[in-house]
């Protein structure tokens, strides 16, 4: 689902997930290749088949032993809030969709996306997808 959202919003998977060998230890991760913002380090070829994940924040491995993709994603998302970090503009739509639809965080105004030139209550692309999904008749 996450990869579909990234694709739908035309955002790069590499901004959210960094892939390393499945035997890689936390101290072996090349930190200079990690983003400053929270990201999931996937130990394996795919986020679907990996059995181990890590969390990086500020180019540091903050948790090197995460056993499920859902836990890694929740920890990454929670890091944006716990450390009061703005969403990177390259992932803004995907993270805002997760915030509003999966984590049910719906502020009355504003967004956590950095460098937002327009002060909108909600990203128009996120709003459009939410409306399309809610208008769809599920059978």
From TrEMBL:
<protein>
    <submittedName>
        <fullName>Uncharacterized protein</fullName>
    </submittedName>
</protein>
């Amino acid at each position: 689902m996450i990869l579909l959202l990234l694709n739908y919003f035309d955002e790069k998977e590499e901004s959210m997930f960094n892939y390393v060998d499945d035997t890689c230890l936390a101290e072996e991760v090349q930190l200079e290749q990690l983003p400053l913002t929270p990201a999931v380090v996937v130990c394996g070829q795919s986020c679907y088949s990996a059995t181990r994940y890590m969390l990086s924040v500020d180019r540091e491995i903050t948790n090197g032993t995460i056993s499920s993709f859902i836990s890694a994603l929740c920890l990454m998302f929670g890091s944006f809030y716990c450390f009061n970090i703005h969403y990177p503009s390259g992932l803004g739509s995907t993270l805002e969709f997760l915030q509003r639809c999966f984590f049910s965080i719906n502020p009355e105004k504003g967004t956590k996306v950095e460098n937002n030139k327009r002060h909108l209550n909600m990203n128009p692309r996120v709003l459009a997808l939410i409306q399309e999904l809610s208008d769809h008749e599920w059978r």
